[in-house]
Amino acid sequence: MAPPAPITALQGVSVTFGGRPLFETIDLSIGRGDKACLVGRNGSGKSTLMKVLAGMIQPDGGTVFTQPGARIAYLPQEPDFTGCATVHDYVAAGLPADERDEAHRVDAVLDRLQVPGHLDPNTLSGGEARRAALARTLVGAPDVMLLDEPTNHLDLPTIEWLEEELLAYRGGLLLISHDRSFLNRLAKRTLWLDRGTVRATDRGFAEFETWQAEVFESEEIAAQKLDRKIEGEMKWLREGISARRTRNMGRVRALLQLRTDRAERIKGGQQAKLAVAEAERGGRLVIEAERIAKGFDSADGRKTIVKDFSTRILRGDRVGLIGPNGAGKSTLLKILTGQMEPDSGTIRLGTNLETAYFDQRREGLDPEDTIRKVLCPFGGDSVMVNGQPRHVAGYMRDFLFDTRQLDSPVKALSGGERNRLLLARLFARPSNMMILDEPTNDLDMDTLDLLEDVLGDYQGTLLLVSHDRDFLDRLVTSTIAVEGDGVIAEYPGGYSDYLVQRPPPKEKEKAAPVKAKPAAAAPKPKGKLSYKDQRELDDLPARMDKLTAEVTKLESALADPNLFARDAAKFQKTSDQLQAKQSELAAAEERWLELEALREELEGGRG
């Protein structure tokens, strides 16, 4: 099928910042019916490229084409409310000049997004400001929408509503987003801004990582044929990003087992409670809530936040909290952690809890401090991680920093790098319970992958408030859904499991807080693996054992806190070898998971 005629396009466009080309000779186009996403590393120029398309930045070279009369609407990451006395005024500015008197259109879109038009836009919360900006983008019925991180600060119901709107949208759409579930559902074409150029594929975002790996592999082969070294940047991209996105087999299996254990406790009766109580004497209990309730008086009467809710959270549990903004997630979190008393019911907290807290505001960094000082505030070159000393250079590599940045000031770091540094500092502090309040807001995909990896290995208890469905699916053992009006229920598994198990909307109120039963599994087909796949499956365990031994040996070498100071070249070489072996192991584990899942699917229906 021929691509749609472009409504807007870039031809040979280049942009230079500070004498350095950000990107050069870029060609891309957006046509009617296009649903494309723009992906790339943080700092690669995605937002700048989108602003060039929107006409907000003039390129240093090339041309920007827009069909005469076409309407282009741009959603920035940070809306500018300058000169707008009310939200209504701000949204009305999104109408074409000859349609500014059609106030009913503004009222209609504000009503759909539930933002009061009379409010001063400068007083809006992050979620309200994002909905107001979306209203301004949608109100003018544009021919092309350019959306930069549209789901940031939105709650799940609003994200799902936005997905439906964009699926039905007939114009051209270009998205920048870190929300994988959002992109998987919407993006039918992928544009990858990589090292100053744009690569394009007609595959959707769901196939991006496969395509990315194919590109890296073909480039490596081409480089080897030319008998030259792979550039350091190329190596970082291939081994750093791709390896981190390949999910660790042991971690996936551990999460599935944790979910099974959590499901049994959520459904369990008296016998299970007795077994838990016995284990709690050793400090296994973290939080126990028994029939708690909480409400507040307001101008509209009594507002119920929590009604007759019980849960027991044990060491190692990872609990996600979801629900609309204003439903009471933060209040429930404060009650569960002892920061707020319930009106009725009881809360019991475990002993010796050491809590680390990561909130939406992000604890600040001194711009003059170096990375070394942030991670080693009391001097020296060692960071204590899980009770073990790590050289700061090795530890910062875990968070995607180059060791040459060790003495770089915070003010020289990009936004994504600062977020990674905050995470590195957070995880270097001793804790056995971590509370994360919307940690994925404003994170680029590299940092989001890193956060997921670190949390996947965290041995403590995790309470996570998030709107990121993919993030929840990959991390949590159970999901507490705060539906509003006091209705709260807990479901084993992640967000996708919640969708399967939750009662139909009309039954939610009378069913809560009864715990839902897991859905019955679909019938499995009969069959078996091919001879080739079975041989590969049989050989993989020995290969993984060998790679694991090699990784362990290299990790032991790097555990020497004096290695970097004694022999920096050996430290670098060992680090590179470790990354390569970890990448091989991750790929083998992922393949084992795929083949084992396929075998179970094929053979599970027998008999």
From TrEMBL:
Parts forming coiled coils: 571-598
Residues engaged in binding ATP 2: 323-330
SMART domains: AAA (SM00382)
Catalytic activity field: ATP + H2O = ADP + phosphate + H(+)
Domain of life: Bacteria
Subcellular location: Cytoplasm
Domain ABC transporter per the UniProt entry, residue ranges: 8-220, 287-510
Assigned keywords, A-Z: ATP-binding, Coiled coil, Cytoplasm, DNA damage, DNA repair, DNA-binding, Hydrolase, Nucleotide-binding, Repeat
Region of interest called Disordered, as start-end residue ranges on this chain: 499-530
UniProt signal peptide: none
Enzyme Commission code: 3.6.1.-
Bias kind Low complexity: ranges: 513-524
UniProt xrefs under InterPro entries: AAA+_ATPase, ABC_tran_C, ABC_transporter-like_ATP-bd, ABC_transporter-like_CS, ABCF_ATPase, P-loop_NTPase, Uup, Val-tRNA_synth_C_sf
Residues the record lists as binding ATP 1: 40-47
Single GO molecular function: ATP binding
Class in the EC hierarchy, top level: hydrolase
Stated role: Probably plays a role in ribosome assembly or function. May be involved in resolution of branched DNA intermediates that result from template switching in postreplication gaps. Binds DNA and has ATPase activity.
HAMAP family the UniProt entry points to: Uup
Family designation: Belongs to the ABC transporter superfamily. ABCF family. Uup subfamily.
The protein's name in its UniProt record: ATP-binding protein Uup
Organism of provenance: Azospirillum isscasi
Gene: uup
